[in-house]
Amino acid sequence: MPDAPETPDIHPVPALTERAPAKVNLSLRVLGRRPDGYHELASVVAFAGAADRLTLRPGPDLALALRGPGAPVLEADADNLVLRAARELAARVTGLMLGRFTLDKRLPVAAGLGGGSADAAAALRLLARANGLAPEDGRLFAAALATGSDVPACLLGRSCLMGGRGESLTPLALPRFGAVLVNPRVPIATAAVFRALSLPPGPIRGPESVPPGFATRQAALGWLADEPNDLEAPARGLAPVLAQVEAALAATPGAHLVRMSGSGATMFALYDDCRAAARAGRMVAAAHPGWWVKSTVLG
Ligand SMILES: C[C@@](CO)(OP(=O)(O)O)[C@H](O)COP(=O)(O)OP(=O)(O)OC[C@H]1O[C@@H](n2ccc(N)nc2=O)[C@H](O)[C@@H]1O
Ligand SMILES: Nc1ncnc2c1ncn2[C@@H]1O[C@H](COP(=O)(O)OP(=O)(O)O)[C@@H](O)[C@H]1O
Question: What CATH number should be reported for the domain whose range is 16-170?
Fold first, then answer.
């Protein structure tokens, strides 16, 4: 049989791909409400192995296509954080080459894992690669912060202490943990949780304790035990199922710390290694087939 004729390559520019890892707030203190309405935070942030995946085929037009298990709950419209981040960078870089993005959406949406922020940061990294911008180019950071408070940390992409509303980032040594992330498939809007906190504008207090950087898992767990997530109480009011999620994670062997990430409703537990996390993840998934359960690595 003769060979099929070759399809001409109508996209000669190679596609670029970036992972967009889930952000986990291991601790989150709210230090006050600022005059601009945002809350001043002090949060130890880590990144998980669990991730969305974003591809860019560089070109003059800006477009987005969605696929993957999370695609049905999202719109590929102008409000999508991938496109917002691209527009923010285009507003700062004359003649920026854009392109067609494809987002493989795997992380739950409105879940406290910063999935949209991770996608936005991945979009900025891809555009930087396509345009030869250095990762430390200040326009990337500015575009990130203009897109959302969590985007600068996602652009940094490594464990850090996050301050301000998300603009102050100090890299932080953190040992590796196994982790299980559990979302009960109850989306929570970040703004609603901050509203439920009902903090009046006023003076910003200083952090009670500044993390020193952690050489061992024991040192990290010791410090984190005294540094909770201040958004957990208001989130529990909005999503009472969090009590069940906490109980399910706490019942798994080897769970060190059970806590909510960001404004929820994803909760996580930390383990000594990935095997313990995988075993725990299987337990929770079997008991709660309707929940999103992911065992992963963190740090
Ligand atoms: C709470 C955190 C913790 O990492 O994560 P998530 O729960 O969203 O993942 C973040 O601060 C969320 O960052 P992000 O989701 O980018 O928030 P933004 O789009 O900037 O703001 C959404 C809304 O949340 C409130 N907001 C956000 C951040 C902040 N420091 N103070 C606030 O008061 C504001 O009401 C704002 O209108
Ligand atoms: N690419 C995206 N992925 C997820 N959410 C997005 C995206 N683009 C826009 N959004 C919107 O951003 C909001 C926050 O989403 P997300 O980042 O998943 O929340 P969280 O930070 O709480 O995990 C949602 O209301 C969602 O509709």
Answer: 3.30.230.10
